[in-house]
Automatic annotation (TrEMBL):
Annotated membrane topology: Multi-pass membrane protein
Biased composition (Gly residues): 484-502
Organism the protein comes from: Nonomuraea diastatica
Cell compartment(s), UniProt: Cell membrane
Protein name (Swiss-Prot/TrEMBL): Cytochrome bc1 complex cytochrome b subunit
Keyword terms: Cell membrane, Electron transport, Heme, Iron, Membrane, Metal-binding, Respiratory chain, Translocase, Transmembrane, Transmembrane helix, Transport
EC numbers on record: 7.1.1.8
Primary residence: membrane
Region of interest called Disordered, as start-end residue ranges on this chain: 476-523
Length: 523
């Protein structure tokens, strides 16, 4: 009785009972791809908890000390307090090495899940209205987590992380006009400076996590709960009808078990597979460079862009502009994130599709989008492979210059070929689906007719199969002169203009360009 009175008093003041009752009944789809975002969310929880543990023992200081800990090979070696405290966490703090490795593996799983989730949303069109804002938040989360991962594995101040910081310093000073000032501000002096670890630590554990704690609930909870969940086409489903299980108790039980699975997988990875053994690398020394250094996989594309870029530079008013650093370090990620952020709006502008979408596409349903997605994957993949061109050259006994030129050609030709091949495959699959709907499903039963010819018996498609095989058509291109200017193509507008004595005036160049893009898209 007291419990119900307390709940009633809280509801009178906070008014949460109505929302809670509605939330408990919210329907969640059952398709497995829906859980890709859940992996990212739960990996973030693991990273957050293990990170809190590590902050109790890590010392973000570059002050030099003489190591006298339990790791015998480094006893008596001068190193920073940051590196010494990381060794202490690894060898002397109970459970410290497990927490370090869970933190690192959790970050890798977190980023991998984000990438998989974004690819799922891209190829299925889940970014379309009304989820374009959520897509932008997802792109921002991807960039923030990637940046925080870079800062995180730079904190131990070992030889491997120092090589990454050297690259970061080179990129910073290459920025025209303000580069040297930014480098002095970030590093606290000439490289390697005295303050870089403490400043990265503040960003890594305070600034970016605060932004993540703000954006992740907005992305995963607030907007998701306010909107209808996406689902794949099926008989009886529409943009107004959702099929699945309620949040309580079905989805809550399933997602709780799924969290335990994610936790178990990260814990097993951290237990069985060693990662970032900083004691093998030694403390960072500016005069020492280790061979075969490789960053974590999500930063590999930046490494590859730097390696295959030609040595271009020029002088402006006596100042050298190093394009060989600016283009790969700022241009490659800038192109990736700009295209990701703008794509939903570009597709809407080209197709003139301003409708609300809750049903997902299959990748084959929109061949152009499928081709563009594969082109983006090839672009990223080529740069990622180029980041290991030295290892590829040494492993396969080929010239390093040859591998560099192969990747230079591949970064241009690869995305084009990926687009063409993926689009043709999607068109072929669509043609196959149309044939199946028109002629029936192959049964594998071969019969011989009266004329001696053999043929296969085909059964008609069911309504359930037809609902999946027949995609919703893209909006048709409106006829000239019937563009209302609001994306519907049904208004009067001014698509056809007449001048006195001049006959029809052609539409503006921008509209002609968009019409050409849409005709290409629909083909």
């Amino acid at each position: 009785m007291k419990g119900s009175s307390l709940a009633g008093a809280l509801d009178d003041r906070l008014g949460g009972a109505g929302f809670l009752k509605k939330a408990m009944r919210k329907i969640f789809p059952d398709h497995w791809t829906f859980l890709l975002g859940e992996i990212a969310l739960y990996a973030f929880v693991v990273v957050l908890l293990t990170g809190v543990f590590l902050t109790f023992f890590f010392k973000p200081s570059m002050q030099e000390v003489i190591y006298d800990g339990s790791y015998v090979p480094l006893q008596g070696v001068a190193m920073s307090e940051a590196y010494a405290s990381t060794l202490e966490i690894s060898f002397e703090v109970r459970g410290g090495l497990l927490m370090r490795q869970m933190h690192h593996w959790g970050t890798l799983v977190f980023l991998a899940a984000i990438v998989a989730h974004m690819l799922r949303n891209f190829f299925t069109g889940a970014f379309r209205k009304p989820r374009d804002l959520n897509w932008l938040i997802g792109v921002a989360l991807f960039g923030l987590v990637m940046l925080n991962g870079l800062f995180g594995y730079s904190l131990p101040d070992d030889l491997l992380s120092g090589a990454g910081l050297r690259i970061l310093h080179g990129v910073t000073i290459s920025v025209p006009l303000v580069g040297t000032y930014l480098a002095m501000f970030l590093f606290g002096g000439e490289f390697p400076g005295d303050d870089i670890v403490s400043r990265l630590y503040s960003i890594h554990v305070l600034l970016i996590p605060a932004l993540l704690l703000l954006l992740i609930p907005l992305h995963a909870v607030v907007l998701t709960w306010r909107q209808t969940h996406t689902q794949f086409r099926a008989k009886g489903l529409s943009d107004r009808v959702v099929r699945g299980a309620p949040f309580f108790p079905a989805f809550l039980a399933k997602t709780t078990v799924f969290f335990l699975w994610v936790l178990a997988v990260i814990a097993l990875l951290a237990t069985l597979f060693q990662i970032n053994p900083i004691w093998l690398y030694g403390p960072y020394l500016p005069s020492t460079i280790s061979a075969g250094s490789q960053p974590d996989w999500y930063m590999g594309f930046l490494e590859g862009a730097l390696r295959i870029m030609p040595p271009w530079e020029f002088a402006v008013f006596g100042h050298t502009v190093t394009m060989s650093v600016l283009i790969p370090a700022l241009g490659a990620p800038g192109l990736l994130f700009t295209v990701l952020a703008l794509y939903p709006f570009l597709e809407r502008w080209i197709t003139r599709d301003n409708a609300i979408h809750h049903l997902l596409d299959r990748p084959r349903d929109v061949p152009v989008r499928a081709g563009l997605g594969v082109a983006g994957i090839v672009y990223y993949g080529v740069l990622w492979l180029a980041g290991g061109n030295d290892l590829i050259a040494s492993t396969f006994h080929i010239s390093l210059n040859a591998t560099t030129w192969i990747f230079r050609v591949a970064i241009i030709a690869g995305p084009v070929l990926g687009y063409v091949i993926a689009r043709r495959i999607a068109l072929g699959l669509l043609a196959r689906d149309r044939h199946t709907v028109a002629h029936g499903v192959e049964t594998g039963v071969i019969v011989r007719g009266h004329d001696g010819a053999y043929s296969e018996i085909e059964r008609p498609v069911t309504e359930e199969e037809a609902a999946v095989l027949v995609p919703a058509a893209l909006p048709a291109l409106p006829p000239p002169g019937n563009d209302s200017g609001n994306g519907t193509g049904n208004g009067t507008g001014n698509g056809s203009r007449k001048g006195p004595g001049n006959g029809d005036v052609p539409p503006p160049a921008g509209r002609r360009f968009r019409d050409a893009l849409q005709r290409s898209w629909n083909r």
